[in-house]
Amino acid sequence: xxxxxxxxxxxxxxxxxxxxxxKAVRVEGKVIGGEDLTIDGDVEGSIELGGxxxxxxxEAKIKADLLAKTVSISGTVQxxxxxxxxxxxxxxxxxxxxxxxPRFSMADxxxxxxxxxxx
Length: 119
Hints:
Elements: E1 18-21, E2 26-32, E3 36-39, E4 42-48, E5 53-56, E6 61-73, E7 76-78, E8 81-89, E9 94-96, E10 99-101, E11 103-106, E12 111-113, E13 116-118
């Protein structure tokens, strides 16, 4: 255990809780997922997770339209964002595009250039 986090590899038959795109990874094209996803790298294209959560890390650079159950953004997104349930922007978030979600929260320091449709 390091810093309170269990870092052991998954045992056979154990399932991962979420997928992860690391800082050193760049993806071009369409990302379609059936599990929660955290992105700390760069993605260009589109991301569709349907009934799952998407987390955009602070150092991530995304040029894509996003669709997920919940979307939490701490990095930079150029593209439209749709949260089926909610979209949350942290203080370091920057979005250039329209945001649509039934619930929306935006911390002080976050920036949006585009329309926000919530409620």
